[in-house]
Structure formats: C-alpha cells, structure tokens
Design a protein that fits this description.
- The protein has about 210 residues and is mainly alpha-helical.
- About 60% of the residues lie in helices and about 0% in strands.
- It is built from 12 helices and no strands.
- The chain is elongated and about 55 Å long.
Length: about 210
C-alpha cells in the first residue's frame, strides 16, 4: 500500500465511522473556545470542561478577563495542569485582545500566536474550528496516531507531522481529520494498551502489523 492509498483508506474509514467529529471542549462563543483550548494544553478536555462553567460565568468576555487579577483566575482553574502560568496567560491574552484586536478573536495563525499562552497547535485549533481554515493542529494523540498508521514516517516533531498531513490530506477534510486523529488516539489508539484488536484500521496499521509479525 502506497501513501496515497493509505491516506485514502484512513479517510474512508473515518468518513464512515465519525463523519461529524468535533472538539469535546464545551463552549458557546469564540472567546470561550480560545480560553478552553489554552487550558487544555497538557490537560484533559474532561478536566477543562469541569472548571470552565464557573470561569466563563465570572469572566464572560475579554474585557472582564483583562481586568482580572491572575490570582483570582488561579482560584478557578487550580485543578488544571500549570494553573499559575495559565492564569497569567489568560489575563495577558485578554489584555492583548482588547488592546490590539478590539476584543475580537484573530482569524490567522500568525496573529493568534502573538497572544500569551497561544502556540501553533492552539492557533491551528482556533482557525480550524471557528473559521473552517484547513489547518492541522498536532497534539500528542495526532502525533502518535499518524506515525502508527503510517501517515507519517519518522516525524521528529509536531511541525513535521503537521506539514506531512496537510500535504497529503484534501483541504476539505483537514479540519475534521484533526478531530478524527485526536479522538482515535484518545479512545482507541492509546499511548499505553492501545485497543488494536478492536480497531477498524488494524489491517492497514503499520504499528499493529509490525507488532504481529
């Protein structure tokens, strides 16, 4: 199976099994999604969803959050990973939104990564989910699943994985493919004890077939 056939098989599988895949983060506004994605770095969506209702109630928009003290934000997010830096970043992000972007969420990766707490992965999630830009956010799940399935080979970092996926995926599926790979990694292709025997992709999976030689 060549690379083109491998990508086609993976796309066909997910089109049938998860045609409407989307983020599991809870949000109602673009600002809330940005906050949630910042909080989700090295933290589970489940944990983030537990703390965001109170956070959004207290800080419903950039203007209110920009006026907050990081210490107050910390008290509401203390159960997520790295709450000290994330509380500072959230307040800093809100301030920059107000000062530089009139309180609106930027629509480009280049603008988004200027915000405190926003790296390339977070920026790609935002433009993909909010603005339907064909951007591929690569987290640990996407990185692992892509390599195991053979969509990438020997990628050394998330940027290499991102470039390879964007190169081979049709632009119209890239936004959904991000969610396909994340959810597959979260529930099936786990880092430890992957559910290979019940995985619908095991017949083409390089990791599974190498393991069962």
């Amino acid at each position: 199976m060549n690379k083109k056939e491998r990508y086609a098989a993976v796309i066909k599988f997910f089109e049938q099994s998860a045609p409407d895949a989307q983020t599991e983060l809870h949000y109602t506004t673009p600002f809330e999604l940005l906050v949630a994605v910042i909080l989700s770095a090295q933290c589970t969506d489940k944990r983030v969803n537990q703390i965001t209702p109170a956070l959004f109630k207290n800080y419903p928009n950039p203007k209110v959050l920009a006026a907050a003290k990081p210490e107050a934000v910390f008290e509401l997010i203390r159960s997520v990973s790295y709450p000290n830096s994330k509380s500072r970043n959230l307040v800093g992000m809100a301030n920059m939104l107000m000062l530089k972007f009139n309180g609106r969420i930027p629509k480009t990766v280049e603008e988004l990564i200027q915000l405190p707490g926003v790296g390339r992965k977070t920026a790609n999630v935002i433009v993909s989910v909010l603005f339907d830009v064909p951007a591929m956010a690569v987290d640990t799940h996407v990185f692992r699943v892509s390599e195991r399935l053979g969509l990438t080979t020997g990628s050394k970092n998330p940027l290499q994985t991102e470039k390879e996926l964007v190169k081979h995926l049709p632009s119209e599926v890239i936004s959904r493919a991000h969610h396909w790979l994340i959810l597959h990694g979260r529930y099936v292709c786990k880092a430890r004890n992957p559910k290979c025997h019940s995985c619908g992709l095991n017949t083409i999976c390089k990791f599974f077939n190498k393991k069962n030689l």
